[in-house]
Design goal:
The protein is an alpha/beta fold. It contains 23 helices and twelve strands. It has helices spanning about 5-15, 25-50, 60-75, 80-100, 110-125, 155-175, 180-185, 190-195, 200-225, 235-250, 255-280, 285-300, 305-310, 380-385, 410-415, 435-440, 450-455, 460-475, 490-505, 520-535, 545-555, 570-575, 580-589; strands at about 145, 150, 340-350, 355-365, 370-375, 395-400, 405, 420, 510, 540-545, 555-560, 565-570. Bound molecules: adenosine-5'-diphosphate (ADP) and magnesium ion.
Amino acid sequence: MRERWPVLVFAALMAAIPFVPDVPPFWIVLLDNIGLSALVAMGLVLLTGVGGLTSFGQAAFVGFGAYTTAVLTTAYGVSPWLALPASLAVSGIAAILLGLVTVRLSGHYLPLGTIAWGLGLFYLFSKLEFLGRNDGISAIPPLSIGALKMLDPGTIYYAIWIAVFVSALLTLNLLDSRTGRAIRALRRGHIAAEAFGVQTPRAKLLVFIHAAVLAGLSGWLYAHFQRAVNPTPFGAQAGIEYLFIAVVGGAGYVWGGVLGAAIVVVLKEVLQSYLPLLLHGEGQLEIIVFGILLVALLQLAPTGVWALVMSWLPVKAARKRPDVSLKLSPRERAPHEGGVLLQLEKARKQFGGVVAVNDVSFAVRPREIVALIGPNGAGKSTTFNLITGVLTATSGSISVLGKRLRNPPPQEVVKLGVARTFQHVKLVPDMSVLENVAIGAHLRGHAGPLASMFRLDRTDEAKLFAEAARQIERVGLAEQIDQPAGSLSLGQQRIVEIARALCADPLLLLLDEPAAGLRHMEKQRLAALLRQLRDGGMSVLLVEHDMGFVMDLADRVVVLDFGTKIAEGTPDAIKTNPEVIRAYLGAAA
Ligand code: ADP
Ligand code: MG
């Protein structure tokens, strides 16, 4: 998906810098600091920029990493290299504990929660006796390999930047995977991802852990670089600064974290060294100027400076075409006896005083296209949400394949073979059509996050993409396969959602207004596709306002009005039903 050579060039450049004759040692120190901040910012990119979870508390995880190695190496004489896994583990475990509490918060509460833990942990660091209270811990041993002691900034430089490059590659690999696509879908809300089986709380916790482990790594390096730790660099102010770095660099991009670290660290340094000279030592002004400059930068490049840089760089290589001969194994599911696929019995949903769905009963049988019609606000979308577990019914029952669902989470419903599209399109706009559609096959892939980081998921991935490409071709969007989904017309985006649903290998397809925004020819193609799916053994339940389309296509029609089922029958019977004409067709015709 991405070109490797710019990274190699960058790595070669960074490796060469310490060998440049007369490079000021101070520059090396600056680069060391940039690398340390970049590691933390990279985690924030994943957490905030990609996953949409804003954290002001990352500095605390740096503290966990730093203090863990400080204690182990000074009080217990453990080698720094053995302390490394401990530092990462302590940060990771802290992230699990804090994450379990925090990821369930939403809106403003999440960032507030992270501020709270940031303040709390800072207080803890500065009060605990064995962490040296405010004085911290000193005389931390340097990193060493054999006789080489990484005492000076020029040698630990390599440790820091190798960590940066390795972390960046692992993070990029993770993002470009089954798990990564699930993470990238989080920012657009949970509903679409969960409809295809993504366990969103688990995905969020995973990014929390990933970000915390990167911060812990930074802390471990920091402790052996400074050879002393105290609470100050792990406080709330540092937490804010890390978030700044990620946002300035471009919170959606891994390399944006590195660039942001470079910009912020250099800017701070320049202002601290030169501003007092210009202003004759008027204290603290640099913080104000720093703030103004950062705000100006964000005005210039609202999506981060990296996005600007990317637009100057030559276009990146397209992903190679999926090999469509690869096959995913069909979904395992309970034996299907050929009875009723979906049965609603007196399903009811009330929102306060509004009865959105009023004791509605109907069934969908195998190989059948059923249309659910009715005026706006009749309760059609709410019915879909009840079936798919997005909403819980107030009363009544819903069964899929004879199995009664009791408040099932959406992830369970899709496992039974029910896949859906949304009236308000829910795609990830900056992800390609192919990647969006591949989310539909989430349950049919198996690779976990660790396998993805180390690129052990390639066969699994190739199969997922092959399946996605096949479905994209089937719905007629092969030409748009590599385009960002957000660049397609709304009608085409609805079709992308159908391809995504087909990737789940469903028995029952729920389509909420699939033909809205399509031109006449496109509607005919869609109708032909749905017939073909039915003849292949699938059932379709669709909501649609285009009566020509519905009456031509449906085997049976269910009519809702004010949440109540007023009629059910063949298209011909419905067209002449007086009550339907009064409530709906009269107005629609
Ligand atoms: P349709 O899809 O048939 O146009 P909906 O199912 O979207 O209708 O809505 C049915 C009724 O339920 C409407 O009166 C709508 O305002 C109400 N409704 C839908 N969702 C909610 C909600 N989350 N909270 C409160 N009322 C809702
Ligand atoms: Mg609707």
